[in-house]
Amino acid sequence: MKVENTQVQMRKGILEFCILEIISRGEVYASDMLDELTAAKMIVVEGTLYPLLTRLKNAGLLDYTWVESTSGPPRKYYTLTEVGKEFLEQLRQTWLEVVASIEHITQKNKAS
């Protein structure tokens, strides 16, 4: 078993949460999301991001607007819906619980 496979699965598990957090700050373009995720070492490719954005949109968590661009075709900017904001708040709470659980478990190992 390779550790890289587990690391990829861990990142995939929190990708949706990270994307919603990025979008929660205001209108955001997909390539800006990719840049931020890459800078945070959350390795994501367009082939992963766009289907996830579509799924989140279809679930009613996101909306988007088309904005004309001076340097090419119109751009799609994403925002959270009210349902998306509530969903994200629940994910934030779950994240805090998961972090606390992991810290509890890992601290026991250090105490031994």
UniProtKB/TrEMBL annotation:
Residues 19-89 form the Transcription regulator PadR N-terminal domain. SUPFAM superfamilies: Winged helix' DNA-binding domain. Gene3D superfamilies: Winged helix-like DNA-binding domain superfamily/Winged helix DNA-binding domain (1.10.10.10). It comes from the Bacteria. It holds the Pfam family PadR. Signal peptide: none annotated. PANTHER family: PADR-FAMILY TRANSCRIPTIONAL REGULATOR (PTHR33169), TRANSCRIPTIONAL REGULATOR RV3488 (PTHR33169:SF14). This is PadR family transcriptional regulator.
